[in-house]
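Something for you to look into today, if you have time. I want to see for myself how the chain folds. Leave the record below and I will have a look.
***
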Amino acid sequence: PTNTPVAPTTTPGGPTNTPGGPTTTPTPTGIPGSPTPPTLSKRFSPPVINEHRDPTLIITLCNPNSSLAYLLAPLTDTLPDGVVITATPNASTTCGGDTVTATAGGSTIILPAGSSIPAAGCCTVSVNTIPTRLGRFVNTLSINALQTSNGSNTVPANGTLIAADNRVPMLSGWAMILLPAFLALVAFAAMRRRAT
């Protein structure tokens, strides 16, 4: 008898199956990736002051994701030694949710858990502060200080405040009275030396 080979059957629009060939498993697509962690930054405004100015501390929270980022734990900022919250804190936030806790004369600022950072946006926390002495002060929020439903900050946030004494030294009343007489005496002595 004559053996006639049978050709493989091809399904229209489908793959060609070779008898005895490997089986290909489709790769699943559309799996969402992990969210991008939020970021923190902070600054004092103005950053350099004299004894008559109360700088405002501004903390900025940013969320690059397309969904809200909810705080899973309070964001707590402790001011450096030498800086306190003013008698009128004016504590406020543009973040969604609760209010900011900042006690006059204290050193702790708290944005409570449950507050939210807008999707693909930023919000701020601000409070008035005052230095208790002259010097340079660095306020730091560490890595993981901001814990949200979209992750935690991976970079610390630093804000620097410089409190300088820019007052012009002034002479006392008696010194101002005696200064012209002293200058006249010096001028008279100089004239005498030239005459001789």
DSSP finds one helix and 15 strands in the chain. Residues 101 and 173 are 48 Å apart (CA to CA). The radius of gyration is 35 Å. The first strand starts at residue 39 and ends at 45.
